[in-house]
Amino acid sequence: MKVIEERRTKTIEIQKVFNRMNLVPDSLKDAGFKNFKERTGTEKSFELAKEFYRNFENVEMGYLFYGGTGAGKSHLCRAIQRSLDADGYPTLFLDWVKLSDLARASISDKNINIHAIVRAAIEVDLLVLDDIGAGHLTDYEYKTVAFPIINGRQGKKTLYTSNLDPERLEQWFSADKDGKPLDEDGRCIDRIIGSCKFVRNKATSMRRERARAQMIE
Ligand SMILES: Nc1ncnc2c1ncn2[C@@H]1O[C@H](COP(=O)(O)OP(=O)(O)OP(=O)(O)O)[C@@H](O)[C@H]1O
Ligand SMILES: [Mg+2]
Question: Which of 17, 73, 127, 206 is deepest in the core (most CB within 10 A)?
Answer without folding.
Answer: 73
